[in-house]
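Reading is simple: each integer encodes one residue's backbone shape. The lines below illustrate:
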Amino acid sequence: MKAQLYLLPVPLSETDIHTIPEYNRRIMGQIQFFIVERVRTARRFIRKLAPEVVIDDLTFFELNKRTTPGDLQQMLTPIRQGHDVGLMSEAGCPGVADPGALIVAMAHEADIVVHPLVGPSSILLALMGSGMNGQAFSFHGYLPAKKEQLIPALRKLEQLARRQKAAQIFIETPYRNQQILTQAMAVLSTNTRLTIAADLTMPTQFIQTKTIAQWKKNLPKDLHKRPVVFVLQ
């Protein structure tokens, strides 16, 4: 069988190793080369999921904002030499809101087999728990941080949701959660629905959908530095 690029989902938090299927553990135990965002995080995850693996026998390539085009090509070299390679994100599914998409695209161009595995996706979990349109939706990643850009971005999502009758999904850096909620309360229509999905798969998980008018009466105050996915419709 040709060597493959395996897309290995990672838990959304370090305590949620149970969200990874046993099949993934078996696959991971057979791989010696990994493409990861941070080696430290990846090594810790592998130790928990497959403790029988000798970590020091593995080779890691880091894929982040400092990665060069030459580095990217080198990451696929083991596959060309007949070795499977595992691609991991920091959390959730690789290639989704994740720089790993670059490697996946290169693999297709090189006629390398891409094998995505099942695992937790905060984006899909938030949509599933939102009660909004699961047949028509868009994911927009991070919205602009600056107020003068954030306000029109929120209004545009609201307009898209109305025109397309589709759920609009976005995320934010955890320390800016309260900032984006403050602006959403100020500029969105009172009958627009907003889902706040925090700490997905964790014991502290919180998912609620309310109209903006309802949220204004009881807005969560404890979202600082918690991973949150927002769904708007």
Remarks:
- The chain has a mean pLDDT of 94.
